[in-house]
Specification:
7 helices, about 40% helix
């Protein structure tokens, strides 16, 4: 078992011990090829949760500051993370993300760019649309529903792949595609949200 797989095991064990975990739609993730997972963002636990229950390794962007800490600098890349500078377009990070997708890997992305303070879906940044348009990756909207409070129900839904053929043919803008992705994430949140959530 490699370090990434061990990390997945630890995450699953931890999450399953604390929360009532429900996973739906894993069959929507292709077994091969580039995949862009676009998810809402409510907690620091979201990145490991998003990738803990699927077989294929998932890459993530993590804020540059984390890579300045000695232990994390060595550990994070082995767990699939790569640095991003916050507060502006980071061309190097965008290029690296594109390379991962073109190399048939999975990239987990939180288009809001930061955690939601009230649990509601915020406005998405253009990066999600950029990756969707600049690569042939399959785009899958995802939704984390519930609360990271001990004993509470926590559900992760992997939606069906988006058909972006028209947007790619008509050369839609990154912003327009991001809006479409965000609307699909919101649809998952609305569809799967329970009255007691």
């Amino acid at each position: 078992m490699g370090l990434y797989q061990f990390g997945q095991f630890v995450c699953r064990t931890y999450l399953s011990a604390l929360y009532k975990i429900e996973i739906e739609g894993k069959e929507n993730i292709p077994e091969q090829g580039g995949v862009l997972l676009c998810c809402n963002h409510i907690s620091n636990f979201d990145p490991p949760f998003l990738g803990a229950y699927i077989k294929r390794p998932t890459r993530y962007m993590a804020k540059q500051e984390l890579f300045e800490k000695p232990i994390l600098k060595q550990l994070l890349p082995k767990l699939g993370a790569f640095p991003v500078k916050r507060g502006g377009a980071d061309k190097q990070t965008l290029r690296k993300g594109m390379n991962y997708l073109n190399d048939q890997e999975i990239l987990g992305l939180f288009p809001e760019g930061t955690r939601s303070k009230d649990g509601k879906l915020g406005k998405g940044l253009a990066g999600a649309g950029f990756f969707a348009l600049k690569t042939d990756a399959v785009v899958i909207p995802c939704a984390i529903i519930g609360s990271y409070k001990r004993g509470k129900r926590l559900k992760l839904v992997y939606g069906k792949p988006l058909d972006l053929s028209i947007q790619r043919e008509t050369k839609a803008s990154s912003g327009e595609v991001t809006e479409l992705i965000m609307s699909e994430i919101q649809a998952l949140l609305d569809t799967h949200k329970q009255p007691h959530d």
